[in-house]
């Protein structure tokens, strides 16, 4: 089973700061997705990246898929308290059979 | 905006009992999924379903589990004889196309199953 690791596990920052969280694997993924999950709720899809090297922007969030399709990053500019949540990466392995989630990065943005 | 709904939001059952968790996927979606998340742990894939049959399943999805699309709108997960370790949040998801072509899946709010 292909595994996804995420770092850091926890991150607490002040409003207005920038941050980057990482999703890594030793295996190639055909696609990676980023989700945000609030306590007691289901994950909400933020973005899907498919092509190695791809960069996608969603307002203050920038997502990048590594050239080798083994890793991805999420960069948040000028974080706001509303960005607080659990950020999960998830991906479909290169055989298109297993969809796996990383353990998540729990972000807390303090006002 | 269309969304995936799940009922009940919380289910408490005794060990050994059967439970059925219900989901209504987004209406034009063709692929359906169940995931579980044990408290404090990762979201884990259980099963995917397309064209009235299971397309993929994980090692977790053993003979105690079954899925069904009993009508045109509902998608259910049945656990035949619940165990304490089945306690978790169960999420249903649906997608328009299959994940192999990167179609996006949308998650429901989850059912919290507590087995006592």
> For the largest interface in this structure, which chains are involved and how many residues does each contribute?
A-B, 24 and 25 residues
From the N-terminal CA to the C-terminal CA of chain A, the straight-line distance is: 40 Å
Q: Secondary-structure element order of chain B, as H and E?
A: EEEEEEEEEEE
Shape of chain A: globular
Number of helices of chain B: 0
Tally of DSSP helical segments of chain A = 0
Oligomer description: heterodimer
Rg of chain B (CA only): 13 Å
Whole-angstrom Rg of chain A: 13 Å
Distance between the ends of chain B: 37 Å
Strand content of chain A: over 45%
As residue ranges, the low-confidence spans of chain B are none
How many strand segments of chain A? 11
Helix content of chain B: under 10%
In words, what does this structure look like?
The complex is a heterodimer of chains A (111) and B (116). Chain A contains no helices and eleven strands. Chain A is mainly beta and 111 residues long. In chain A, the strands form two sheets. In chain A, strands 2, 4, 5, 9, 10 and 11 form a six-stranded mixed beta sheet that branches. In chain A, strands 1-3-8-7-6 form a five-stranded antiparallel beta sheet, with no helix packed on it. Chain A is globular. The mean pLDDT of chain A is 92. With 116 residues, chain B is mainly beta. At the A-B interface, strand 4, strand 5, strand 9 and strand 10 of A face strand 5, strand 9 and strand 10 of B.
């Amino acid at each position: 089973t292909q595994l996804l690791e995420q770092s850091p596990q926890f991150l607490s920052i002040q409003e207005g700061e920038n941050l980057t969280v990482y999703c890594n694997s030793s295996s190639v993924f055909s696609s990676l997705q980023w989700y945000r999950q609030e306590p007691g709720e289901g994950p909400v899809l933020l973005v899907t990246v498919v092509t190695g090297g791809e960069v996608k922007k969603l307002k203050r969030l920038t997502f990048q898929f590594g050239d080798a399709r083994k890793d991805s990053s999420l960069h948040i500019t000028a974080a706001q308290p509303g960005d607080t949540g659990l950020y999960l990466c998830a991906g479909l392995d290169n055989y298109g059979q297993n969809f796996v989630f990383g353990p998540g990065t729990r972000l807390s943005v303090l006002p | 905006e269309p969304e995936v709904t799940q009922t009940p939001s919380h289910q408490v059952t005794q060990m050994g009992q059967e439970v059925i968790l219900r989901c209504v996927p987004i209406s034009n979606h063709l692929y359906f999924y169940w995931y579980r998340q044990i408290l404090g742990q990762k979201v884990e894939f259980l099963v995917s379903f397309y064209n009235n049959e299971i397309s993929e399943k994980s090692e977790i999805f053993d003979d105690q589990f079954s899925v069904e699309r009993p009508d045109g709108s509902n998608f259910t997960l049945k656990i035949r004889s619940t165990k304490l370790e089945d306690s978790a949040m169960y999420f249903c998801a649906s997608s328009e196309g299959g994940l192999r072509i990167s179609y996006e899946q949308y998650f429901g709010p989850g059912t919290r199953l507590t087995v006592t």
